Amino acid sequence: MNLAYYPGCTLKTKAKNLEEPAIASMEVLGFKLEEITRWNCCGAVHSLADDDLIHQVAPVRNLIRAREQKKNELVTLCSFCFNTLKRANLLMKANAEKRNTINSFMDDEIDYSGEVNVVHLLEVLRDEIGWEALAQKVKLPLRDLKVAPYYGCMLLRPREVAIDNVEDPGILRKLVEALGATPVDFPESTRCCGSYQIISDPGVISAYAWNILSSALSHGAETLVLSCPLCDYDLGQGQKELVKKRAEFKGMPIFYFTQLLALALGLDPQVCHFELNYGDPVSLLREKNLLS
Amino acid sequence: MSVTISSKRMGSEFVKKVKELSGENLNLCYQCGMCTGVCPAASNMDLSPRQVIELARLGMQEEIAESKTVWICASCLACTVNCPRGFDLSKLMEAIRLLTLRKNVDHVKPEQVLPEKRDDIPQIAMVSGLRKFTG
């Protein structure tokens, strides 16, 4: 089965280790992630100002591309892209006045009214494959790997785009369980990593990272799993300073959920691009006999 | 902190503008402080998120302009999903930022981002950060 897929800019450069294991894994699971043609940057953040419609144009154009290509559903991997596309879609669906303004501004495009359902790949795994069916496909159970699910902000907020319960999400926990690893719940799993503050005040990012990583560590986690390239960067960069400053902290590897998925499905680890991860994910996987 | 309130300030152009840009009803807030309690950045802020709402509806434009709070907010929406009154503080924070940015006053200049950082950070960080911090 083919699924229309929107990659976004970061996945083509910095986060190949999020995209490539996703494409390979979905193929094993019977789905082809089919990249829509002529996509553009999603805009990265949803415009929060009531009068700011020009910044809706970029995400809406992507939705129009999907519609033109006869797609009813658009799958995303990057949490930022998911959030921005889904919020723009809801706006086009719910607000007739703004929809008309945006449609008439883009008079070279077909009119769009929110027909494309924007989903995250985690939702596809849960809703179209199911955890039990996924567990049956696992060839290399990630035994003894203690994984803390980290959601960040964009998969869960605001409520109208949340892929799971906002207060008590479980979708990553279920995935971790299906892959044979041990999920480790911790209270900071939905706390912001500092996000784009990395460009204005990089110094604060390590403090944000410490709040999250130290909480996961104290609950017994060996690693975090996430889906956002910016969370991955902030928590990875933040660690570099933490390791220097805190003698007791030896660093914590971070994985994209697609990397653990590919590994558990028995795919060639090369597809995971572990060399792009921060820290030392390979040593942890070798220690657990998950990598030769 | 002590503030002097006046009906003139409360009906000022600033109050009208933040209401218009945010699309939010500032009078919904009953100052419970949930937003501050759940904000992961509150400890770095000089005005708490709760105080920003109160000062905005009182028309205290200068006090807000002197504060760093709206620039520390990362629009994580923890306040938004937890507000018992359904007030979307992320939109008020954005409205206040835009009052500065739309005067062509940037909070961050792209050239200030260190070259090695520019090459290293993911595109979503550059695009989102420059969207939030430049006009």
Description:
- The complex is a heterodimer of chains A (292) and B (135).
- Chain A has helices at 16-28, 57-68, 79-94, 96-105, 121-129, 131-137, 171-178, 197-200, 202-218, 229-245, 257-264, 281-287, and strands at 2-6, 32-35, 73-76, 117-120, 146-149, 182-183, 223-226, 254-256.
- By secondary structure, chain A is α/β, with parallel strands linked by helices.
- Chain A has a four-stranded parallel sheet with strand order 2-1-3-4, with helices on both faces.
- In chain A, helix 1 runs parallel beside helix 11 (257-264), helix 2 packs across helix 3 and helix 9 packs across helix 10.
- The longest helix of chain A has 17 residues, at 202-218.
- Chain A is globular and about 60 Å long.
- By secondary structure, chain B is an all-alpha fold.
- Helix content of chain B is 54%, strand content 0%.
- Chain B has ten helices and no strands.
- Chain B has helices at 7-10, 13-22, 34-38, 49-57, 61-66, 69-72, 78-82, 89-101, 115-120, 123-133.
- In chain B, helix 2 packs across helix 8.
- The radius of gyration of chain B is 16 Å and the shape is globular.
- The A-B interface holds A 8-10, 13-15, 41, 43-45, 47-52, 55, 78, 80-81, 153, 156-159, 166, 190-192, 194-202, 204, 208, 211, 229-230, 232-233 and B 20-23, 40-41, 44, 71-72, 74-78, 80-81, 88, 90-91, 93-95, 98, 107-108, 113, 117, 121-133.
Question: What topology does this entry show?
Answer:
The complex is a heterodimer of chains A (292) and B (135).
Chain A: E1 2-6, H1 16-28, E2 32-35, H2 57-68, E3 73-76, H3 79-94, H4 96-105, E4 117-120, H5 121-129, H6 131-137, E5 146-149, H7 171-178, E6 182-183, H8 197-200, H9 202-218, E7 223-226, H10 229-245, E8 254-256, H11 257-264, H12 281-287
Parallel strand pairs in A: 1-2, 1-3, 3-4, 5-6, 5-7, 7-8
Helix pairs in contact in A: 1-11, 2-3, 6-7, 9-10
Chain B: H1 7-10, H2 13-22, H3 34-38, H4 49-57, H5 61-66, H6 69-72, H7 78-82, H8 89-101, H9 115-120, H10 123-133
Helix pairs in contact in B: 2-8
